């Protein structure tokens, strides 16, 4: 279709070109007068009909023509009162008229020149000699000179009212060679073209050139634009835009609105929002793309993620996930506001969260310190757990994050946690074929079981969350390459410390001091279960969120701070009386695996 459009454009330009070319030939008649008879152009001073020709007082030799194009072609033009001469061509540039005259072939001596209305005249055409005769049966072409003859020469005619050279940029030249007498003619000055016998008839050739040039530019731009539109449409379709639109329509139909404000953005909108993806707008670079800060037309601030390349087969899945994420409306999940699909790699538009990542908050040196209220840490942990629990349970099949880490938990200016980057997220695969063959995730957070089976489950997120919680409470990096090998992994350090009963030492000062023994045991127990080698032994995200919230309430309670208290209220507040009985025991291989550290030497 686009090809057709550009072809039409080309035709239009060609048409305009021919019009422009035609205008450059002396073809213009007086306004309102016919400028052609059949296919013969009739330029002023010639004209068909009253007031359409130049009247120079010589009735019989004026420029008046009669057109007869009613019969079969070619049309006949009658001029100078000679109805038997049919006109073939009128030329202003050469001041010549070509006529067809009736003649009979003859072998008589030939006479050069035409002698008035003399019928005893001869002409030679193609080395043959003809005698002009009204009863002749052959049309022979005859070229005649013409001139304006009401005054003898240019100097006499100039400055008179009837001076024939009407146009500015026109010249006058004398015609004397003619047997019919002297007169003058007009032509356009060098660099101009057109009809010198009309006001404004001579126009600059450069105007035409500029006109043509600009038309060519327009054509090129139009072709480029249509190519761009084609490319955009191709990407839009490639990136699943059509499916998304259809699904949005079906969703919109039931909710009555356009899917909770989810919007399909154009490339221009996002370019404008990010100042053409300026480097100083970059918020961060992740495993799944670059994130820019953007300001939309309505002044709202957003985060725009330029994703990495996608495989063709991934696009349908991507669209499905995107649609589901757009439906998620949870205070602890970064909201997906829209997307842009008309680029090679799709871009996603998210709610902007102002105060950076939890990773920066913990390790950045300006945020979390030993004195930060334990409550803040527990709240951030509980909120993150809430978000994951919601993702795991709200949709069917559950939405798995796949890359839970502190760098993927954002904080707003009131330190509310918001989980982001479901870029690696997968709807839980429901059959063997869908199980990912490529393990994705981040070293230090990756579920060792996932690494072995390549099967991402909700318990993989639980393991990663356990690492996040550990990081938050110890203020240590999950992988530390400075110390001895056995201390490289925070998880293995923790597991060994628990085994030795020295896990309290691993905790951050503020945590150690702020928590009672019971609470510390509780949180260590929870951590131990989260980072269990066996996924089945890990608690669900919902339980973790509840336990963290209970722990937080317990810490806020006055008797929470007291050391060594072991009252019934405390136990019930912690809500794990029953769990005490089935105390978690490490199995030998868990510890061996971790101590060997082998499971942490993967590269992704
Ligand atoms: C006009 O058309 C006739 C045939 O239709 C052709 O013979 C003649 O050359 C044409 N004249 C011009 C000036 O194009
Ligand atoms: C042709 O011209 C020649 C010389 O001018 C003359 O002798 C001859 O008679 C002429 N022929 C005719 C048929 O007029
Ligand atoms: C122009 O024509 C006028 C009158 O017809 C005549 O007097 C004059 O000499 C001519 N000028 C030239 C330069 O031929
Ligand atoms: C106009 O006509 C004169 C005389 O025939 C000629 O010398 C001159 O070159 C012509 N100018 C143009 C622009 O054709
Ligand atoms: C932080 O996010 C929460 C949840 O969306 C919101 O209620 C709160 O107002 C936000 N804080 C600020 C300062 O915007
Ligand atoms: C959020 O970030 C701003 C600017 O970086 C900073 O001034 C403010 O203290 C931060 N808020 C919190 C609660 O850390
Ligand atoms: C390694 O970790 C253990 C347990 O936390 C700790 O006692 C030991 O000091 C650590 N070693 C180094 C070199 O950090």
UniProtKB/TrEMBL annotation:
PROSITE patterns to which the protein is assigned, alphabetical: PROTEIN_KINASE_ATP, PROTEIN_KINASE_DOM, PROTEIN_KINASE_ST
Annotated SUPFAM superfamilies: Protein kinase-like (PK-like)
Topology in membrane: Single-pass type I membrane protein
Subcellular localization: Membrane
Protein kinase domain: residues covered: 277-560
InterPro entries per record: Kinase-like_dom_sf, Prot_kinase_dom, Protein_kinase_ATP_BS, Ser-Thr/Tyr_kinase_cat_dom, Ser/Thr_kinase_AS, WAK-like, WAK_GUB
Any single Gene Ontology cellular-component annotation: plasma membrane
Residues at which ATP binds: 306
Region (Disordered): 556-589
Basic and acidic residues composition bias: residue spans: 570-589
Superkingdom of the source species: Eukaryota
Keywords attached to this entry: ATP-binding, Disulfide bond, Glycoprotein, Kinase, Membrane, Nucleotide-binding, Serine/threonine-protein kinase, Signal, Transferase, Transmembrane, Transmembrane helix
GO terms of molecular function: ATP binding; polysaccharide binding; protein serine/threonine kinase activity
Endpoints of the signal sequence: 1-22
One example of a Gene Ontology biological process annotation: cell surface receptor signaling pathway
Protein name: Protein kinase domain-containing protein
């Amino acid at each position: 279709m686009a090809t057709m459009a550009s072809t039409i454009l080309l035709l239009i330009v060609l048409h305009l070109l021919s019009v422009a070319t035609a205008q450059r030939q002396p073809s213009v008649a007086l306004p309102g007068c016919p400028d052609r008879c059949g296919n013969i152009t009739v330029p002023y001073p010639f004209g068909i009909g009253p007031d359409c020709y130049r009247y120079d007082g010589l009735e019989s030799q004026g420029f008046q023509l009669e057109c007869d194009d009613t019969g079969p072609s070619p049309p006949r033009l009658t001029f100078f009162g000679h109805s038997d001469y049919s006109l073939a061509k009128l030329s202003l540039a050469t001041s010549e008229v070509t006529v067809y005259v009736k003649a009979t072939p003859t072998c008589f001596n030939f006479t050069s020149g035409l002698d008035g209305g003399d019928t005893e005249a001869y002409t030679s055409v193609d080395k043959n000699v003809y005698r002009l005769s009204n009863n002749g049966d052959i049309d022979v072409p005859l070229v005649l000179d013409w001139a304006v003859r009401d005054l003898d020469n240019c100097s006499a005619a100039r400055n008179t009212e009837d001076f024939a050279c009407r146009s500015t940029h026109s010249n006058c030249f004398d015609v004397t060679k003619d047997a019919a007498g002297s007169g003058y003619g007009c032509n356009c000055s060098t660099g101009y073209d057109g009809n010198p016998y009309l006001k404004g008839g001579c126009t600059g050739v450069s105007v035409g050139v500029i006109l043509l040039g600009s038309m060519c530019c327009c054509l090129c731009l139009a072709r480029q634009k249509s190519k761009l539109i084609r490319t955009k449409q191709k990407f839009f379709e490639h990136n699943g835009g059509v499916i998304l639109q259809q699904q949005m329509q079906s969703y919109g139909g039931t909710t009555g609105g356009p899917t909770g404000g989810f919007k399909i953005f154009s490339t221009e909108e996002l370019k404008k929002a990010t100042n053409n993806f300026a480097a100083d707008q970059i918020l961060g670079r992740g495993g799944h793309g670059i994130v820019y800060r953007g300001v939309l037309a309505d002044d709202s601030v957003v985060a725009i993620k330029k994703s990495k390349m996608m495989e063709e087969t991934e696009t349908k899945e991507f669209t499905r996930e995107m649609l589901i994420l757009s439906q998620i409306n949870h205070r602890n999940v970064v909201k997906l506001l829209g997307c842009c699909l008309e680029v090679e790699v799709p871009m996603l538009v998210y709610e902007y969260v102002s105060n950076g990542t939890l990773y920066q908050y913990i390790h950045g040196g300006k945020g979390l310190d030993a004195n930060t209220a334990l409550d803040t840490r527990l709240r951030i942990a509980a909120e993150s757990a809430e978000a994951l629990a919601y993702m795991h349970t709200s949709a069917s099949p559950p939405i798995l994050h796949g890359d839970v880490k502190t760098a993927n938990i954002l904080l707003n200016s009131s330190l509310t946690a918001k989980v982001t980057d479901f870029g690696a997220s997968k709807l839980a695969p429901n059959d063997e074929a869908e199980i990912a063959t490529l393990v994705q995730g981040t070293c230090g957070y990756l579920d060792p079981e996932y690494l072995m089976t390549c099967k991402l489950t909700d318990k993989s997120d639980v393991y990663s969350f356990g690492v996040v919680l550990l990081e938050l409470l110890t203020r240590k990096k999950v992988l530390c390459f400075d110390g001895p090998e056995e201390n490289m992994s925070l998880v293995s350090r923790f597991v060994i410390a628990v085994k030795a009963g020295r896990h309290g030492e691993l905790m951050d000062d503020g945590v150690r001091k702020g928590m009672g023994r019971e609470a510390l045991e509780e949180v260590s127990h929870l951590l131990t279960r989260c980072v269990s080698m066996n996924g089945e032994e890990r608690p669900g995200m919902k339980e973790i969120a509840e336990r963290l919230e209970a722990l937080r309430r317990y810490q806020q309670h006055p008797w929470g701070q007291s050391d060594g208290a072991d009252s019934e209220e405390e136990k019930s507040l912690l809500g794990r009386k029953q769990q005490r009985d089935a105390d978690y025991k490490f199995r030998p291989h868990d510890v061996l695996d971790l101590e060997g550290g082998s499971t942490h030497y993967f590269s992704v």
